[in-house]
């Protein structure tokens, strides 16, 4: 976890430095605490912590921050499966709809042994009339793999007022290893609709193709905004999801979550620990992204 502490500390430092240069700051984001009951050939549970935030300064400078921590406890397995990610993406908003910047994401997977991955590169997006189209290009360094790994992807979101929001994207990781070119593809689609009366329904699906090994996940859920009855904003959510993976078989997942939103209220949204939520928060690392969404 040392790398995650350093990444979060750096993000906090950058935010503090930028804050001293500007008195006017707009921010939005959420913290989600989740629990998942996983039912398949082997039963498991997953405790999750997710954080996502955007900090925008009046100078045009923006900072995206992300954190995801998963602790999967598998029955009759003597160790836990850990899947952790931390990201930071400084960028500049040119006030004409165009935003461009950099991204760095550190991922740690532990399946008996730890595998560290560092993703970095360039990203940008263009916003117009409620729609945002984005793209990224970079690399991922994987411990123990000296060969080249290239990441690229496209994504889009559309908001219809504060009632409906949809998102979709495609990401590919190209690995040149052992004399072969391996393509790891991940498609995403998600939507959230605010019915009013504090109720939002969300749905999403992922389709992953890892050189003939498919990992397909879909989920449907609902959330209730209980902020009127609590001293701080609180949103409770529930989701049912299914994952069909060639190496795992069929897996049923019930997810429960508590979201603490902060900052400016945006459009209808899905919890960070949901399948739809992953479509709104695309990761440049298809390997960790597919695993996190599957569980």
Automatic annotation (TrEMBL):
Origin: domain of life: Bacteria
A cellular component term, taken from the record's GO annotations: membrane
Keyword terms: Signal
InterPro entries: Gram_neg_porin_domain, Porin_dom_sf
Name used for this protein in its record: Porin domain-containing protein
Coiled coil residues, start to end: none
Segments forming domain Porin: 83-176, 183-275
Record organism: Pseudooceanicola marinus
GO molecular function, one term: porin activity
Lineage of the species this protein comes from: Bacteria, Pseudomonadati, Pseudomonadota, Alphaproteobacteria, Rhodobacterales
């Amino acid at each position: 976890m040392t790398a995650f502490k350093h990444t979060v500390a750096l993000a906090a430092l950058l935010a503090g430095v930028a804050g001293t240069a500007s008195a006017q700051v707009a921010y939005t984001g959420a913290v989600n605490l989740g629990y998942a009951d996983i039912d398949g050939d082997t039963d498991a549970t997953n405790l999750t912590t997710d954080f996502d935030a955007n900090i925008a300064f009046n100078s045009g400078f923006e900072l995206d921050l992300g954190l995801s921590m998963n602790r999967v406890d598998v029955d009759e397995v003597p160790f836990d499966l850990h899947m952790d990610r931390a990201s930071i993406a400084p960028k500049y908003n040119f006030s004409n709809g165009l935003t461009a910047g950099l991204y760095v994401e550190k991922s740690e997977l532990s399946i008996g042994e730890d595998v560290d991955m560092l993703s970095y590169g360039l990203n940008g997006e263009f916003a117009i009339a409620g729609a945002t189209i984005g793209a990224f290009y970079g690399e991922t360094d994987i411990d123990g793999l000296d060969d080249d790994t290239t990441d690229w992807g496209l994504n889009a979101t559309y908001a219809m007022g504060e009632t409906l929001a949809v998102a979709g994207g495609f990401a590919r990781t190209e690995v040149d290893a052992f004399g072969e070119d391996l393509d790891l593809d991940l498609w995403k689609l998600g939507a959230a609709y605010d019915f009013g009366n504090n109720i939002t329904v969300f749905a999403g699906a992922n389709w992953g193709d890892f050189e003939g090994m498919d990992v397909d996940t879909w989920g449907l859920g609902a959330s209730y905004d209980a902020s009127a009855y609590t001293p701080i904003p609180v949103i409770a959510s529930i989701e049912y999801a299914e994952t069909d993976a060639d190496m795992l078989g069929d897996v049923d997942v019930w997810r429960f979550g508590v979201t603490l939103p902060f900052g400016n209220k945006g459009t209808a949204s899905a919890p960070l620990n949901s399948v739809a939520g992953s479509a709104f928060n695309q990761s440049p690392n298809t390997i960790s992204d597919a695993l996190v969404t599957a569980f």
